Amino acid sequence: MKYRSGYKYQLAEAYVIDTDITPPYDISTEYIDLYADGRLVIRNGYAWDGPSGPTVDTKNFMTPSLVHDALYQLMRQGHLSGVWRYFIDKLLIDMCKERKMCGVRRWWVNLGVRWFAGFAAKEENAKKVIEVV
Question: 59-76 vs 85-98: helix axis angle to the nearest 10?
């Protein structure tokens, strides 16, 4: 058996959002599609770890964390250039604001991703496949 650990949540239905993240070509992976026009499709079954850092998994943070994690995964996999990191982080903060997250918490989230999330975009930090017999 093979598996990956470290996930807390799994989508029960696809999530679709239009973004300003516009790669030069369509990207398609097992669970994530990002089209050149910015449309992001995260398919049913996608797993993510929810909001990271010293924070609480609140309703106004779940969808932004889903989108952020999926886009960072595309960077880790080499599908998106690291130049998109600033725009992905901005999208996270914009989504939190749309969901009425208070300004102080948004500031804290922004500070956290700008200072500490860079490692999560690097290929060597992809979730490892664990094999058991």
Answer: 170
Asked whether the beta carbons of 76 and 125 are under 8 A apart, the reply is: yes
State the CB neighbour count (10 A cutoff) for residue 46: 21
CB contact at 8 A, 16 and 40: yes
| CB-based contact 15:33 (threshold 8 Å) | no
C-alpha closest to that of 12 among 39, 40, 46: 46
Q: How far is CA 77 from CA 29, 31, 127, in A?
A: 10, 13, 11
d(CA 86, CA 113): 10
pTM exceeds 0.90 for this model: no
Q: Could you tell me which of 62, 23, 50, 51 has the C-alpha nearest to residue 39?
A: 23
Q: Which residues pair with 35 in a beta bridge?
A: none
What string of pLDDT tens digits covers the 133 residues of the chain?
877 777 889 999 999 999 999 999 999 999 999 999 999 999 999 999 888 777 888 999 999 999 999 999 999 999 999 899 999 999 999 999 999 999 999 999 888 888 766 656 666 666 676 788 7
